[in-house]
Amino acid sequence: xxxxxxxxxxxxxxxxxxxxxxxxxxxxxxxxxxxxxxxxxxxxxxxxxxxxxxxxxxxxxxxxxxxxxxxxxxxxxxxxxxxxxxxxxxxxxxxxxxxxxxxxxxxxxxxxxxxxxxxxxxxxxxxxxxxxxxxxxxxxxxxxxxxxxxxxxxxxxxxxxxxxxxxxxxxxxxxxxxxxxxxxxxxxxxxxxxxxxxxxxxxxxxxxxxxxxxxxxxxxxxxxxxxxxxxxxxxxxxxxxxxxxxxxxxxxxxxxxxxxxxxxxxxxxxxxxxxxxxxxxxxxxxxxxxxxxxxxxxxxxxxxxxxxxxxxxxxxxxxxxxxxxxxxxxxxxxxxxxxxxxxxxxxxxxxxxxxxxxxxxxxx
Length: 364
Ligand SMILES: [Zn+2]
Ligand SMILES: [Zn+2]
Fold this sequence. Notes:
This protein is α/β, with parallel strands linked by helices. Helices cover 26% and strands 25% of the residues. The chain folds into two domains: 4-151 and 325-360, Quinone Oxidoreductase, Chain A, domain 1 (Alpha-Beta Complex); 164-305, NAD(P)-binding Rossmann-like Domain (Rossmann fold), CATH 3.40.50.720. It contains eleven helices and 16 strands. One zinc ion is lined by residues 41, 43, 62-63, 162.
């Protein structure tokens, strides 16, 4: 029996429309789901403002917790071979892993050239429900998804497919070892997850941040040291403070999640000789900062940059939440719930930082 669903479509920057479409039936290998919770993420705001390099329009939303409503032919398990049935809660990876493009062929699944195949599509094109700001969401045959473990609070599971998976992948690519000191530039969603993951790996953590609410959250996440950049207000002062906290040698690992070019330029000065640096926060091309390559060479710093993650990291992220969601105040990160009809308010309040993480509840 055909029913209709509602979705939120970005037509041009900062202009959204509500549209209704018939809920499709899944093709073989696909799933049709109902959206339980969809978060407003920082990258949604980039897209909304028109700053994303590839996604300029389309159905909004990517962080999601879904309930399976119809399984396509042949779908019996998730991507970890867990049996899947109608009614199960799942978390899908937000992009496609085609397994056929030049990146997939060399095993760089996180760099799949077709990752955003369905992102910028018009909702007119079937199966319509390309984004998660909607009552329904279509999971394609090339799209990894995992059943959400029962121990994970649904309220926090929606964010696993973005920030936490990203941080776990980035830190694995960089290499983080027991006893390392990790300096994290920025205590937004990525930064808080970096504190939790680095701590669980046995590292000591330092956060650099200048906003009271964010410093407080970082401390609630158990960061070992805070450098307030209103107090340490030059790159030299911050580098000196990191050296003081690390017996004069500098941090082993740096993580750039502030999202400003100057933070990247500063990062290498915070590290020890031979340190490792993870660049993950600057995602908009076309912005630059003064960078000192001579210092990079003299210190022999290894820089790793990542975008997206290998799709199975979503499963690691869900497991991480199952083990650690009591230990870290993940539940406090979601501080505002909105109906789908209030999506513009949710976007505006997220943009102005009146709320930390807004969640849409489209089916309530
Ligand atoms: Zn591919
Ligand atoms: Zn996100």
